[in-house]
# Entry
Amino acid sequence: MAASVKVTTGKVRLSYPHIFKTHEDPSGKEQFSASLIIPKSDKRGVQKIKDAISEMMRDKDCLSKWGGKIPKKFWNPLQDGDDKDDAAYADSYYINAKANPDYPPKVFDKDRNEVVDPSEVYAGCYVQAVINLYAFAGQSNSGIGVGLAGIRKLADGAPLSGSTISDDDWSDDYDDYDVDDLI
# Structure
């Protein structure tokens, strides 16, 4: 095993997607990114990620990158969504994945056709992701980072962003207004 492992997730929910256009992270670096919300009920998918992390923590190449031992401030990429103050993450784990501008994530539909319309893949839809777990060593912390290689949209879901518009939001009582009274 090397200092990185490719993992394909099960059905996860997409949040904070920046997969078609880079955005600036808090440090000022441009990158692609997405948060992947993994239901705790997906025992097989969660275990696959946990197993990959455990293997990396025992791998000689990873340990070498970390100075021969697991760092005191070890960053585990699989975070508990119940610790987040966001209802969309409840009863879930999540992973924040990133990609450099030179390596944008590939984005496909359910039938594995490349998605060209960014509005088709949005915060709240259900996807499968291909991620690369990799060992990193930094000055303030070290651990396992997550690269975002690809997204495959599997199904629509309730949007996680802002408000939505439905037929019930419209009113037909506009005839009661006299435009001249509004000016």
The mean pLDDT is 90. The two ends are 72 Å apart (CA to CA).
